[in-house]
Write a structure and sequence with these properties.
mainly alpha; 2 helices
């Protein structure tokens, strides 16, 4: 998911540089949403791992 967020961010930068403002805005929004989902899932996984190791000790 992080890979797709980076790809959309790069597409947004390139399209903005080429003058496609609408496409740049849309891809930037998609990149932000994907990155937010990635961070939330990462934190959930991190808390799950911490909980498992804490319960094992």
């Amino acid at each position: 998911m992080l890979k797709w967020a980076i790809i959309f961010a790069i597409v947004s930068l390139v399209s903005g540089w080429l003058g496609f403002g609408t496409l740049s805005g849309v891809t930037a929004t998609i990149a932000k949403v994907l990155f937010a989902i990635f961070v939330i899932l990462f934190l959930i996984a991190l808390l799950a791992v911490i909980g498992v190791f804490h319960a094992a000790t």
